[in-house]
Write a structure and sequence with these properties.
Blueprint lengths: L4 H8 L15 E4 L8 H16 L1 H8 L18 H7 L1 E8 L4 E7 L1 H4 L4 E5 L5 E6 L1
Amino acid sequence: MDMSASKVKDIIGDCPRFCSPDCEPYGYYIVSEENKRIRDTSIQKYWEKLKYMSEHADLLIQQAFQPEFYEFFGVSQNMIASSEEMCHQLIIDSFVLYTKDDSIGCYLSNSQFMFGHFIDCLWRDDWDLIYSSIC
């Protein structure tokens, strides 16, 4: 289920760590098990999680970032000076709630130096990082 772009904008405000909900592909949505209706409680949880992420984006991105991501072949090192700079310039391209377990998935990237690659992240409902990997 795609989430309302205007509500996403209201929540993320002008936080530079988020991709605009006006960008394609659209990255703000809820994923449920096949043929299951998305409950209002899941929608409310989505907005709460998005608000938390917008308030703690730097910390959560740092938690998910691994310095060795800078060495990934898809990172243009002539466009970014260090792993620290890379981490500080990552943008949240997608924000997804999985209703099965209320986990949160995000793709982090920056088209200026990652050219179609991204970092896939997944957090538990309590924001404990499950994994992050670069693709």
